[in-house]
Amino acid sequence: MTSRLDPQPLEWLDRSQTLSFEFEGKRYTGFAGDSISSALLACDQTLLGRSFKYHRPRGAVTLANHDVNALFQSGEEPNIRGDVTPLAAGMSLTACNVNGSLAKDKDQIIGKISRFLPVGFYYKAFHKPKKLFPMWEKIIREKAGLGTIDTRWDVRRKAKTYGFCDLLVIGAGASGMQAALSAAEQGLDVVIADENPHIGGSLDYQLVNDTRAASVRTGLKQKVQNHANIRVLPGHLACGWYTDHYVPLLGPDGIIKMRARAVISATGVMEQPAVFRNNDLPGVMMASGAQRLVARYAVKPGQRAVVLTANSEGYRAALDMLKAGIDVTAVIDMGKAGNRGAWADELKTKNVSVLEGHMVYEAKGKQALTGVVVAPFDGSKCDLSKAREIDVDLLLMSVGWAPAAQLLYQAGSRLGYDATLEQILPQELPSGIFACGRLNGAFTLEQRLADGARAGAEAAAFIKGEPLPAALAACRDSEAHSNPWPIVDHPKGKNFVDYDEDLQLKDLVNAAKEGFDNIELMKRFSTVGMGPSQGKHANMNGIRVLAAVTGRTIDQTGSTTARPMFHPVPVQALAGRRFRPERLTALHQWHLDNGAQMMEAGVWMRPEFYGRPEERAQAILREVQAVRTGLGLIDVSTLGKIEVMGPDAGKLLDGAYTMRMSNIKQDMTRYALMVDESGVIVDDGIAARVAEDRFYVSATTSHADATFRTLSRHIVEWGLDVRLVNRTGTLAAMNLAGPHARKLLKPLTDIDLSEENFPYLGFKEGNLCGVPVRLIRVGFVGELGYEIHLPVESAQQVWNTLMEKGAEYGIRPFGVEAQRVLRLEKGHIIVGQDTDGLTNPFEANMPWAVPLKSKPWFTGKPSLALLKERCQRSLRGFMLPQGYSGELPKECHLLIDSGDIAGRITSIAYSPSLGRYIGLAMVDQPLAGSDRLFQVRVESGALVPLEPCATPFYDAEGMRQTVDLTEVA
Amino acid sequence: MKVFDCPVIGRRPINEFDYGGEVRRPPMDADETTWAAYVFNRKGAPGLLREWWYHRPTGRWYVMERDTLKDEVLRFIDLEEVRYDIPA
Question: Which of A266, A416, B40, B87 has the most CB atoms around its CB within 10 Å?
Answer without folding.
Answer: A266
